Every structure is written in C-alpha cells, then in structure tokens.
Automatic annotation (TrEMBL), chain A:
Record-linked InterPro entries: Trm112, Trm112-like
UniProt record similarity statement: Belongs to the TRM112 family.
Pfam families: Trm112p
GO molecular function annotations of the record: protein heterodimerization activity
Descriptive protein name: Multifunctional methyltransferase subunit TRM112-like protein
Gene Ontology annotations of biological process type: rRNA (guanine-N7)-methylation; tRNA methylation
Domain of life: Eukaryota
Automatic annotation (TrEMBL), chain B:
Biological source species: Guillardia theta (strain CCMP2712) (Cryptophyte)
Cellular component aspect of the GO annotation: cytoplasm; nucleus
Gene Ontology terms describing biological process: tRNA methylation; tRNA wobble uridine modification
Protein name: Methyltransferase type 11 domain-containing protein
CDD domains from the UniProt entry: AdoMet_MTases
Key words, A-Z: Methyltransferase, Transferase
InterPro entries: AlkB_tRNA_MeTrf/Diox (IPR051422), Methyltransf_11 (IPR013216), SAM-dependent_MTases_sf (IPR029063)
C-alpha cells in the first residue's frame, strides 16, 4: 500500500465516520521506483488531504523536506516535487496494520495488501 | 435448483455467498484471471471519458483488467476475493481486500466508479440495493457509476436460462491449481441473473441517484447512474 492509496482509505466499521484517515503501523516497507509524471503528480496533489499525507509520510520516515502545506508546494521546484513523488508513490507498506482511530480496530496489511474485510460479528 | 435463494424465511446470505462466490473465486482465481484480460470497449470508453486526474473506484476489480485502461486517472481497485487481489498485486496495482457492502473509502470522495459483473453475485435484492448505495456513498455529488450485471436473456454460449438464481459451473483445469493438467474440477458460482428493466428498478430501490444511460452489452444489462 502506497500513501496515495492510504489517502483515499477510511475505516469500513459501521461506527466509523467514513471521513477520518487510518493510522499506519508499519512493520516493513519497500521502496519501488515509479515513473515520474509531473502532470499526474500535480493533479494528485490537488486532490489529496495534505495533513494526512504528511503525517503518514512522517510515520514512515519519508516526510523530510515535504512542504508543510499544499500552498507551499512549488511545482517548478523539481527537487521538492520528486520528494513528494517519492513519499506519495514509491514507498510501499508491505507489512503492518491500518488502525481505525475511532474504534481501535486494526486491519492487517500483508504482502502489500490491506485486508479491510470485517468479521461476521462486526457486520 | 428450485429455491436456491428462499423467498422468505431463514437464509444466511453471508455464509451462502462465502461458499458459493468468494470461496469459488479464491479457488479459481489464477485460471479465471488467465481468461479475463481483454477490457470490454464500452467500459474502457467510460473510463477514457473521465477527466485527467479523476479518482475512480473499481469495486470488485477482479484481476485488475480495468485498472490500467486510462493511466491519467487514479484507479482504486478492491475485491472480496484474496486470490483475485493477489493477481492485481502481481501486476503492480495497489489494491485492497474489501467488501462491496462495506467499502473502506471516504464518503463523497470519488469522481466515478465501475461495478463490472459484481452485484449479480449478491443473493438478495436488499443486498444488491445496499451494494449500489455503498457505491453511491463514496461518490461525490454528480459522480457517475457504470454498473454491469449478467442478463437472464443472454443469447450466447450460455443461453436458455429459465430462472434468475443459478449456479454457473467453472471448469477448473488443475494446472492452474498446481496439478498435472490432466484433471478438471468443477466449481459452481452463484449468480442472480438480471432481467430487462431490473437494473433500473434496483437503482430506484437504492435511491439517491438518477439514470444517465442504460443499455445491453456483452450479455449484461448495464446502467450509468449519477449521484444526486
């Protein structure tokens, strides 16, 4: 799971607000190169929740050098854009958990795939 | 197969679908994926018609054949079958394991969604409507969803259905399950086949949407809806 995906996820628990982001508990991450596409990246920056992205990037130790707010993103600064690209698209959490901050329910990530299924008694 | 899904009385839909849908897809995933590689043109053109940078959910993405049709949009794939999401992961797509009835996405956030041959695997009308409502939940107002379901009236290889609730056999060549290639195992998948007009009725039952288009394609009844 990359952070771009994480930014769109919310807890599927019925008690949850379906708005808040999940907390990442990372046990293992890998870095994988993704093609840099400035146009696509700009469009993704427009749509992500920046605070959530930065907090998630910090928790994975890839938050250094990221602008503190979306307004500070300078799309002509290629060095800064490549840092954003790296944190958003190239760091893959392959093992760990996603934690619903409203209920404490943990959703395991194994082989890079978050398991967001609920148990019978949670339906 | 009379009374596959009882009209009333005790029926555990979760357990039934686990056994006759999710369990089957896990078992046949590799072989199934091998046969599902070509995107249907009308689904592809729906995806290509979206604005660059659009956020799109592929709910029940199967082996992920629609995840790379339009590289200018962000596709979020999910499926209920672990075997199938592993096929997507193998092709480099970031996907998650999730249930159509409880999607792990933020509300009012997607520009579009596709549901291709998925809702027909749910065994009651109320669950099929709930699946549509959950897709509508994640869409932004004005966001569109393209929904395909297998038709009862199909005239191709599998023509001649006489009832809507059916087990459709999948002949699994055992070479896809680590065997020698000599044996064929049969798995029965549950389908609720849609009749003409049923998609429109289901969208009305789900509520909160209007129909933009409806048509017949590749033996499926299809609708495009817009979230109100």
């Amino acid at each position: 799971m990359i952070l771009l995906t994480h930014n769109m996820l919310a807890s599927p628990m019925k008690e949850a607000s379906k708005q808040l982001h999940l907390k990442i508990e990372c046990e293992e991450k890998v870095e994988k190169e993704q093609e840099y596409n400035a146009d696509f990246l700009n469009r993704m920056i427009e749509r992500i929740d920046w605070n959530s992205f930065c907090a998630a990037a910090q928790s994975l130790d890839v938050g250094n050098g990221l602008p503190e707010s979306k307004e500070q993103v300078d799309s002509s600064n290629e060095e800064q854009m490549k840092k954003i690209h790296h944190a958003l698209m190239e760091v893959d959490v392959v093992k760990g958990s996603l934690v619903c901050t409203e209920t404490g329910r943990k959703f395991p990530i194994a082989a890079g795939i978050p398991n967001m299924l609920l148990n019978q008694d949670e339906l | 197969m009379e009374g596959l899904v009882p009209a009333s009385g005790a029926f555990d839909a979760d357990k039934f679908e686990d056994e006759h849908v999710h369990g089957v897809y896990d078992a046949i995933a590799r072989h199934f994926s091998h046969t599902r590689y070509k995107p249907w043109p009308r689904v592809a053109s729906f995806l290509q018609s979206l604005e660059d940078g659009a956020l799109v959910a592929d709910v029940g993405c199967g082996n992920g054949k629609y995840l790379q049709v339009n590289p200018k949009v962000l596709m979020m794939g999910s499926d209920r079958s672990r075997g199938l999401v592993e096929c997507c992961q193998g092709m480099g797509h970031d996907v998650c394991l999730a249930d159509n009835l409880m999607l792990p996405y933020r509300s009012d956030s997607f520009d579009a969604a596709i549901s291709i041959a998925v809702i027909h695997h749910l065994s009651t009308e109320e669950r099929r409507a709930a699946a549509v409502r959950e897709i509508l939940r994640i869409l932004k107002r004005g966001g569109q969803a393209l929904i395909y379901n297998w038709a009862m009236e199909q005239q191709g290889r599998r023509k001649g259905f006489t009832q809507q609730d059916n087990f459709i056999p999948w002949q699994l060549q055992d070479k896809f399950a680590g065997g020698t290639g000599q044996l064929v195992m049969v798995y029965n998948r549950y389908y609720h086949l849609f009749v003409e007009g049923e998609s429109e009725k289901l969208m009305e039952l789900a509520g909160g949407n209007e129909i933009v288009d409806s048509f017949y394609d590749h033996e499926n009844w299809c609708v495009v809806i817009r979230k109100l």
